Amino acid sequence: MVVLANPPVVDQIPLLRSPGPADYFSAIPVVDLSSPGAARAVVDACERFGFFKVVNHGVATETMDRAEAEAVRFFAQAQADKDRAGPAYPFGYGSKRIGLNGDMGWLEYILLAVDSASVSDACAVPSSAAFRNALNEYIAGVRNVATRVLEAMAEGLGIAPVDALSAMVKEQGSDQVFRVNHYPPCPALQGLGCSATGFGEHTDPQLVSVLRCNGTSGLQIALQDGARQWVSVPSDRDAFFVNVGDSLQVLTNGRFRSVKHRVVTNSLKSRVSFIYFAGPQLAQRIAPLPQLLGEGEESLYKEFTWGDYKKAAYKTRLGDNRLSPFEKFARWPDRAAATEAGL
Q1: pLDDT at 267
Q2: DSSP E strands, the chain
Q3: Residue 215's closest CA among 30, 52, 72?
Q4: Domain 10-340 falls in which CATH fold?
Q5: Distance in angstroms (rounded) separating the CA atoms of residues 225 and 53
Q6: Is 95 helix (H, G, I), strand (E, B) or coil?
Q7: CA atoms of 57 and 34, how far apart (whole Å)
């Protein structure tokens, strides 16, 4: 078990009701990437939840385990040694503070830039060759998963060419980010019916994000049923979980919805997660794809570039609706209502 050398004061971190057995969501879509029906399954999951689990993804268990073991070793260092790898503005080691706008969480993390399929040379962290090599092997595998998922989306949506979405990530200069999160146990809250917020509720701004964690649960998503019911995602260390991001929501004109999610900490178990964020080039135009607009259907969003949106996102709090300033119209109950109204 990994613990922080100097645990943060609990009262600095927002508290949430501890999830119980009834909160676990058994209906999370599972997509077999090796199946002929993967494209249809991906689109269905993105339309219903903006979230799904991927199995038969092709990344070796040994690759995932090696990266996890190196991450555990890094976070087990003395706090002073870890602090020398920060602060994470924008890349490096961070603890408790998430971004520059006051958000706090019961976690520590490493934030890294990715060039092509490996950690950018501009990132001095991690300095350990073993950790860096393990991460590069993992990133190459998970980036391939992301591109296969984006190609399945294009196929399922009937977009040509099939790499119309994945090319945005594979192009030279694409804005890819990789994050390693460690949520230490919080024994001070054991038996109190509440848990510390690990990472506050938010959506991801990129196209998609691909997550993998150890066997400790904690991830929650908000169901898109109007009531914003929070449900817990059962952990599966052999699978990947995919989130639809804000940019993909715009590209599909709201057909896919970016999923709001958060992390609740465990009182006794440490949680380690890896998240690959697939973003396009800064100059990439973000607007609904013409092939997805029906006859007479208008874009629900003002056009912007990924660089514009990224800059705006960094000025917000985690829970803010980052897309709100880019929406053309007042929020409608659903996409069909807006289309029926001629918007």
Answers
A1: 87
A2: 15-17, 30-32, 51-55, 92-98, 103-115, 118-119, 176-183, 194-202, 208-213, 219-222, 230-232, 240-244, 261-264, 271-278, 285-286, 304-305
A3: 72
A4: Jelly Rolls (2.60.120)
A5: 20
A6: strand
A7: 7
How far is residue 271's CA from residue 261's CA, in Å, rounded to a whole number? 16
Question: Amino acid identity of 42?
Answer: V
CB-based burial label for 59 (10 Å; 0-12, 13-18, 19+): buried
ω into residue 7 within 30 of 0, thus cis? no
Q: What integer pLDDT is reported at residue 224 of this predicted model?
A: 74
CA distance 52 to 72: 26
DSSP E strands in 61-136: the ranges are 92-98, 103-115, 118-119
What pLDDT is attached to residue 336? Answer: 46
Local structure of residue 22 (DSSP, 8 states): G
For the chain, domain boundaries: 10-340
Q: For residues 196, 197, 199 and 202, what is the CA-based torsion angle, rounded to 10 degrees?
A: 170
Q: Which residues of the chain have pLDDT under 50?
A: 1-9, 332-333, 335-343
Q: Say if residue 237 is exposed, middle or buried (CB neighbours under 10 Å; 0-12, 13-18, 19+).
A: middle
Q: How far is CA 312 from CA 88, 205, 308, 317, 323, in A?
A: 19, 10, 6, 11, 9
